[in-house]
Amino acid sequence: MNHLTAAEMIAIKRDGGELDRQMIEDIVLGITDGSLSDAQVGAFAMAVRIRGMKIDETVLLTDAMRRSGTNISWQLDGPVVDKHSTGGVGDTVSLMLAPMLAVCGAFVPMISGRGLGHTGGTTDKMESIPGYTTAPTDDRFHEIVRTIGCAIIGQTNDLAPADRRLYSIRDVTGTVESIPLICSSILSKKLASGTNVLAMNVTTGGGAFMSNLQDARELAKTITDVARGAGVKCHSLVTDMDQPLGSSAGNALEVQYALNYLQGTREDRMHQVVIALGAIVLVDSGLASDTASAVLALEKSLISGHALEKFAQMITALGGPVDFVESSAKYLVKAPVLRNVTADASGWVSGVKAKEIGMTVVVLGGGRTQPGAPVDWSVGVTQVSSVGDKVEPSTVIAQVHAASEDAADIAEKRIRAAISVSENSIAPRPVLIGD
């Protein structure tokens, strides 16, 4: 029995010590039942952010957080799979990939998070669809996954509740960029949700929490090792987030982007990541014999229109409009002010600072600076240029969607600072970096 106080346990980690199983159990219990204050949880997160954790500690933390709530079990006639990203800007992969995988025979109970720092949250995006509930009853969630094959919902109250509280406090205490905390946050939810196969998208670059490639590779390896140790088939893919993955950032705007993708308008960088992650899942789950056949199956799900149909069915099943796919413009809320930002000079786009684009969305009201704060689903940025694009002074390099002219002014300044133009053509970094 551990008789250390919370302050003493935090101090051990603060001073670079290793926490044992009982200490971690006590800390996670205190996070879950509220006996640790927000200040103490923030101090624990900061100590881990600065001092790190050994793999064994991370495994213990992940397991304790998984057991802080219910664990879902599935009785389905196919593999239960999931995909997760460590965060980025303009990253709508989940919205397209869940229905694509369902068409290919997988079951995808995708339990997603809200926006964290400068990155968007899948739950916030889906809630921009009128009527769509990200908090169905357990029975309804199971029924939708069983009959349709996919359901994108938010984290339930009883699924890894320790993570839910820790996640929200990390968001506002500068402790997001921590390999042990990211790993335990992701995997505690995935393990609790009954996932058998997991594809991890570990982003790196200026718009990622792991801006350094070496750190990203370390995170990818840590997640893969911990997941496999828990009996989950897992592969991690490292992808570029120096620039936004897609040309739209903002909640309702990204839903429309995903819909456009499923309907046939596909940007190459986004498509590469969607297909690569989907292929990992199909091969690891046994639904495809090799990568080539997996790619063919995923492409077929798009070309046939079946992935779009699945997306529509999921939206309707979770309370959204029955004609959402056909009439999204009628349902998705629109910002009152649109502002085109044009290039200052001729040349080629040489840099698009993804983090600045993401923070622009936050400043516009599309993200959070306090846990639980509301977000404006309508605001954001579209038509964001990509590195290598040729521009003239009249070329639109981004379009701001804002609640007011004053907000648009601020956003325009941030975007101009984020997008640089050079006299010489520059090739972008490949979006698929490796494992």
User: Any low-confidence stretches, pLDDT <50, length ≥5?
Assistant: none
Tally of contiguous helical segments = 17
Task: Estimate nothing, just give the exact number of structural domains.
Answer: 3
Oligomer description: single chain
Tell the overall outline.
Answer: globular
By DSSP, the count of extended strands is 12
Protein name: Thymidine phosphorylase
Subunit structure: Homodimer.
Organism: Acidimicrobiia bacterium BACL6 MAG-120924-bin43
GO molecular function: 1,4-alpha-oligoglucan phosphorylase activity; thymidine phosphorylase activity
Could you describe the 3D structure shown?
This protein is an alpha/beta fold and 435 residues long. The protein folds into three domains: 6-52, Up-down Bundle (Transferase, Pyrimidine Nucleoside Phosphorylase, Chain A, domain 3); 81-317, Nucleoside phosphorylase/phosphoribosyltransferase catalytic domain (Pyrimidine Nucleoside Phosphorylase, Chain A, domain 2); 333-422, Aldehyde Oxidoreductase, domain 3, CATH 3.90.1170. Helix content is 47%, strand content 14%. The chain contains 17 helices and twelve strands. It has helices spanning 6-14, 21-33, 38-51, 55-66, 93-103, 122-126, 138-148, 161-171, 179-192, 213-229, 251-263, 268-284, 291-303, 306-317, 328-331, 354-366, 405-418; strands spanning 81-85, 108-112, 150-154, 197-204, 233-240, 337-342, 347-352, 380-382, 390-391, 396-402, 419-422, 432-434. The strands form four sheets. A four-stranded mixed beta sheet has the order 1-4-5-12, with helices on both faces. Strands 6-10-8 form a three-stranded antiparallel beta sheet. Helix 8 (161-171) packs antiparallel against helix 9 and helix 12 crosses helix 13. The longest helix has 17 residues, at 213-229. It is globular and about 65 Å long. The chain starts with 5 loop residues before the first helix and ends with a strand. The model has no long low-confidence stretch (mean pLDDT 93).
